[in-house]
Amino acid sequence: MLxxxxxxxxxxxxxxxxxxxxxxxxxxxVRSAPQKIYEVTxxxxxxxxxxxxxxxxxxxxxxxxxxxxxxxxxTSNPDALAPSIPEIMKVxxxxxxxxxxxxxxxxxxxxxxxxVAIGKSGRxxxxxxxxxxxxxxxxxxxxxxxxxxxxxxxxxSPDLVIKTxxxxxxxxxxxxSVYSELxxxxxxxxxxxxxxxxxxxxxxxxxxxxxxx
Length: 213
Hints:
By secondary structure, this protein is of the alpha/beta class. The protein has two domains: about 25-50 and about 65-120 and about 160-170 and about 180-205, Undecaprenyl pyrophosphate synthetase (3-Layer(aba) Sandwich); about 120-155, no CATH class. Helix content is about 35%, strand content about 20%. The protein has a seven-stranded mixed beta sheet with strand order 4-3-5-2-1-6-7. The mean pLDDT is about 85.
């Protein structure tokens, strides 16, 4: 009951949502609670609807809601997460799921965009990006930031990166997340609750973003 009341109080204070959120997870995290990815997706959808409805009714300008999510699972052996895939695939019931595992990519479902990247490295992505540009014979003198970003596998910049469990971040989205807001939690992914998610969103709302300026 107390957590429910705290959730309600936190939600009432949230008016500005990040458009894209990235969760940095470990193989251990997901193996211990694979269903949590579906739960967080459902929370994000529901919170977005509530905040947007409140904004529309008040006539104020505000956030368009959480438009997309990424869950990066750090592992040197993507096959080890095979038993967790059925739980991850449940996301397709409520969202458009883009699942990257090794060199494989699978897209299913509809709704808000949710990307699950298993065992992907930011450094590997940059190397692959350079290879694609070389394969398309892009002259070095014509390469700009915009050119580079067109060849990236993950073409978005998260507004908020959440890391549970207190571990260090990986190099995933090393280019894209340079201006992202970071939120670290000591709580492990298995015990990550909706109230913890709302606390992260409240913290994001209170920050003055500078985008490197």
